Amino acid sequence: MIKFFRKIRQKLLSENRFSKYLLYAIGEIILVVIGILIALQINNWNENRKSRDQEQKYYCLLLENVEQDKEQVLQLKALNEERKNGSYEAILEIQKEKPKAKVFGKSWINALQRVTTTFRPNNATYSDIKSSGNLSIIQDKAITEALNTYYTNVAGYAETIIINSDFTVDRIKSLDSWFEAGVHHVNIFSRYNNDVFTDAIREKIKEDLPEYISEDYKPILYDAILITGTDNGRRHQLLELIESEVDQIKQLLQDKCNNND
Questions:
Q1: Which of 81, 196, 241, 257 could be 60's S-S partner, Cβ–Cβ 3.0 to 4.6 Å?
Q2: What is the structure's pLDDT at 12?
Q3: What transmembrane ranges does the database entry give (predicted)?
Q4: Residue-range definition of the domain harbouring residue 9
Q5: Please, what sign has the CA dihedral across residues 94, 96, 100, 102?
């Protein structure tokens, strides 16, 4: 093709037809410019297609993270139901005229299981998008704002859970004695094996542990379990709020991930 145009130029010059040569040269330049513009347009189209493909992948990866968040919050709610049941049973026992230490202790331990556990959102993909400078790839700014709101809100709720549980743990740590709270009854004779205590020691402990919670210690434990129960009730509300946030962002991302247009 280049040789063909070169021959035309040479023929026009040899025939001393300069005006036609000039027009031809201009036309050739225009063709070259058009070719460059077309090449740039194709390149831009390819880059844009790659960006849209990457955007689609991001939506689906973000959705996977949020689906894991959904699974996590459901597990935490199930665990908290066990805590709430433990609180309920312990309160019923401490309200009796002669509450049994072993019954109270078992229920209280259930009410306190993994009390410092909170919700931790999976933000791996979102953090990667921001750290790599690819946030601009997400063209739907409503999604970006929704993601910012989601991670901010759930982090706040999760932090509140920890603050509340810290208050509960501090109250428990302030107790003067665990001896007649029933905790030793459960830990030594139900939850753990014989590696720590010999049979002789365990038998003596069993004799020394009181069967009933004393009248003096009863109001102290009553107060402690009420605090624990209140914390578990508030935790349920916070987990409900987290689940609502998860469901909202999940719906948005599902629509984007499933949209292949």
A1: 257
A2: 46
A3: 21-42
A4: 2-257
A5: negative
